[in-house]
Specification:
- The longest helix has 20 residues.
- A hairpin with a 5-residue loop joins strand 30 and strand 31.
- The two termini are about 45 Å apart.
- About 40% of the residues are buried.
- This protein has a six-stranded mixed β-sheet with strand order 22-19-23-27-26-24, with helices on both faces.
- The protein is of the alpha+beta class and about 525 residues long.
Length: about 525
């Protein structure tokens, strides 16, 4: 029997990551002004029956190589390989038949109650990761540029065209320590027959005294010193006998050698820094050189982070029976800062609807986006949902991903501030941040590349993934001595999830229609580099 399977292809570092046809083109963003991005595309909800997934590279951001498995071998593009991943035809199942995600390391059976965060979503079809991401990216604001001191602008994108009001350098100067001479005087100089010149003076950097030389004379200069009038070359000191009253030159040099002319670096009126340029140490150096103390930049988006849950207590408090330390407000605030945002950790939400509403209203006044992590009630009363409804309401929905399929997003208050709700389980919360919140922060920053770069890696062990859900597994990826990457999931199902996550350096991404990756099969891996 011949079975058609798929090997997940490698995503190009310059493209949209693993999001199939879901990458948002940001190349036309106007970084010089604040504006909203275009509205999201039409809904992409998974329901059965569904058509076969397109393999056209124009519609899929990571190409997939078609594989035919016949007996013990796999034929791919005419070559036989021994490992593959198993793909399930999406047309054979409907979303209401999709089981809840199970622990994907193969050591536990699927648990129908294992969904991270639960809310009554009966009758609601699964939403694709791409559609939920598009809804968020479609409405997050583009904050207007602000002017900052150049040092405070580090790490942000320039939002103005900076032109130089002066020439760099502002005067002809020596490019190194040596002797300023006329090139015609040393045209015949060699080691065997050096040219002897009289030294008539010395200049150091910072001296504003104008000097000059004529035929047969030399002027000793330090790097950065003004070039004497009449000189057109600087002979390196190492190419002379370094004499004080007279100097012997051992080499001929072309006119202009080791001389920095006025405007060689930047001429008056030239562009110094383009719009959209990331401002780093080199750009700060140039801005200071052209006389700019302040510069217009895309500001850091302001993100308020809150956590909901009766069981939560703050760090340092005594943890009683049934209580848990608030991990998410710390982890998500740190993740937001790492992504480039200005994060406000507002902490645990009060267990009172009126106080919840007041807290949310206060955070929306000072924030561009509000991020809430929590476990939401399943069909019963939920204070947070009631508070959100009073401010406009959010739609809770199931996204076809694991861990943490229950999410919510909407715009609340008179200003329509985006509010993102992610699962309350800490591992699921950080995965949701990587998939949905981090790209939104980078879009608000004006970044062209919204997603982390991905690589292809060989799986060191078998991976199981729930049918119909995009699986994100923490793992460790490493270089193989023979080239390429090898990845393995961290730990087993009996280990504490936080400890596993803390040791991971990547996320392993398994598509919705892949239920098993054999040991030695290829998987998409997203390295988790700080600030990357």
């Amino acid at each position: 029997m011949t079975v058609v399977t798929t090997v997940v292809g490698m995503s190009d570092d310059s493209t949209r990551g693993w999001f199939a046809s879901g990458g948002r083109d940001t190349t036309q963003l106007d970084l010089g002004q604040g504006s909203l991005v275009p509205p999201p595309r039409d809904n992409q909800l998974m329901s059965g029956p569904t058509p076969q997934v397109s393999h056209d590279p124009a519609h899929v951001s990571h190409d997939r190589a078609h594989v035919v498995r016949d007996g013990a071998h796999v034929v791919r593009d005419g070559a036989q390989v021994s490992h593959d991943t198993v793909q399930v035809d999406r047309a054979v199942f409907a979303s209401d038949r999709v089981p809840s995600p199970a622990i994907a390391t193969g050591d536990r059976s699927p648990d129908p109650m294992a969904d991270t965060g639960s809310v009554d979503v009966s009758g609601v079809r699964l939403r694709t990761v791409e559609h939920h991401l598009d809804e968020i990216l479609g409405v997050v604001p583009q904050p207007a540029p602000i002017e900052l001191a150049v040092l405070d602008a580090q790490g942000l994108l320039c939002a103005e065209l900076v032109t130089s009001q002066r020439s760099l350098p502002a005067f002809d100067q020596a490019g190194l320590d040596g002797y300023a001479v006329r090139s015609a005087d040393i045209a015949t100089a060699t080691v065997e027959t050096p040219v002897d010149l009289a030294v008539v003076g010395e200049s150091i950097a910072g001296s504003g005294e104008a000097t000059s030389i004529s035929d047969g004379l030399a002027h000793r200069v330090a790097v950065g010193a003004m070039l004497p009038v009449g000189a057109d070359v600087v002979v390196p000191a190492a190419w002379t006998d370094q004499g004080a009253a007279r100097v012997q030159v051992y080499a001929a040099l072309a006119p202009g050698s080791y001389v920095r002319r006025i405007g060689d670096d930047v001429a008056n009126g030239d562009t110094a820094v383009q719009i959209g340029t990331p401002i780093g140490p080199a750009q700060i150096s140039l801005l200071a050189a052209v006389g700019r103390e302040r510069v217009a930049v895309r500001p850091r988006p302001r993100i308020a982070v809150l956590c909901a849950g009766d069981e939560l207590v703050d760090v340092g408090a005594t943890v009683g029976p049934g209580q848990q330390v608030d991990v998410n407000s710390y982890a998500l605030a740190a993740a937001a800062r790492d992504a480039g945002a200005e994060a406000y950790r507002a902490g645990i939400m009060p267990n009172d609807r009126r106080r919840m509403v007041e807290l949310l209203e206060g955070q929306m006044l000072r924030s561009d986006v509000v991020l809430i992590a929590g476990t939401f009630a399943n069909g019963g009363p939920d204070l947070l949902q009631e508070a959100l409804a009073e401010l406009g309401g959010l739609e809770f929905t199931q996204v076809a991903m694991h861990p943490g399929p229950v999410h919510a997003f909407g715009r609340l208050g008179s200003d329509g501030v985006p509010v993102i709700c992610v699962p309350g389980e800490p591992v699921a919360a950080l995965v949701a941040f990587e998939v949905f919140v981090r790209p939104a922060i980078r879009l608000m920053l004006g970044k062209r590349q919204l997603f982390r770069r991905t690589v292809q890696a060989v799986s060191a062990q078998q991976l199981l993934s729930p049918l119909g859900y995009r699986q994100y597994l923490h793992g460790q990826v490493m270089r193989h001595p023979d080239g390429g990457y090898v990845v393995e999931p961290i730990g087993d199902g009996d280990q504490a999830m936080l400890a596993r996550m803390a040791r991971a350096n990547c996320l392993i991404v398994v598509d919705e229609d892949v239920t098993e990756v054999s040991a030695g099969g290829l998987v998409t891996v997203m390295p988790m580099l700080l600030g990357g």
